[in-house]
């Protein structure tokens, strides 16, 4: 509000000491514009008295986003090569610039000699915006050491092209000398794994709802030539309304446009690997339908369909590949669900159900129009308890109790094969991303909503 009041005073001529109308260029008292920044107004406002600026058009030039534009509040996730934080966007020059363009300047036409407002010494404030995100932070050195550089780059590229109601959105991607950052939507209903662990198993109606939304998300990925390869309860989030959001695309394979095209990478979560991935004989998009079968089984039964608990990876793989061991489905599972599971958990991928057969299967007979599912118009069978946009009570305390401190920037060198070498950034060229479409939607949402305080009482 202080910034808006300041702008108003400038426009109305009540802060004459802050204005320089003599067209002194960069010699005014305002701080100089930093090299490389476009549309920065901290060094001055340049509003030509023309019809274009009398409109409410928003400036299309946006300043480069970096880690200093976000305030860390909590740790909400942790992986082998990075952490995920709950962060708040801080207002900056781009937001102030858009505010200036929304002010009606028509009354200035009577002010003799005033064609341009220049060099206004705006206060350099960074204020909380009330817009919260999930920030994934990864060390470049760790990515090189664990051979995960291509994995992270692939995830960034996939997220950048995703636009689906049941996958997480990417808003920004940027890097520093030693770290990579992905700024994604914050989904605070908790992991499906978290809820399944608490409730042991779900009703078939609830399973049907989650499975249907998963089917559409996977179908969308396949349409883009992407094999997901990591469908599991830990990678499915619930939003505050009870709908799913699939996340973590690090193991996904792109470029699989042609139907039936195979890839040979050995990757995934051991318990969820399809038999053909273990065999190394080549796999297709069908592996995602195998994982869907495992997911459905776990949701309705509360345990893995194969007896692999507490076994070594070798033993797990042997059991999963063994065609003589059929899935034993409990008696309380309905005939319709049993039929679906048997169709999905075919160890020979040729016999596995395809997406068309899944959507027309009798288990989904109550869904007469899949577009209704796509539009998020099905009523969720369960709505997470969420008190605010920043409520973290559905996130495991294993993460949230950790101090929300980012590790400091470290040396650009790492040891490899006993020798120090400089980290090369060629792999990360073009990593930055700015999702203007989703940011516009976010602005429209937050502009009409009262800002609520951050809820960090869950310790």
UniProtKB/TrEMBL annotation:
Keywords per UniProt: ATP-binding, Kinase, Nucleotide-binding, Phosphoprotein, Serine/threonine-protein kinase, Transferase
Basic and acidic residues: compositionally biased ranges: 436-446
Domain called AGC-kinase C-terminal: residue spans: 366-443
This protein's record includes keyword Kinase: yes
InterPro entries in alphabetical order: AGC-kinase_C, Kinase-like_dom_sf, Pkinase_C, Prot_kinase_dom, Ser/Thr_kinase_AS, STKc_AGC
Every Protein kinase domain range: 70-364
Classification via Pfam families: Pkinase (PF00069), Pkinase_C (PF00433)
Keyword Signal: no
MF annotations from Gene Ontology: ATP binding; protein serine/threonine kinase activity
Region Disordered, annotated ranges: 21-60, 436-459
UniProt cross-references to SUPFAM superfamilies, sorted A to Z: Protein kinase-like (PK-like)
Protein name, entry field: Non-specific serine/threonine protein kinase
Biological source species: Halteria grandinella
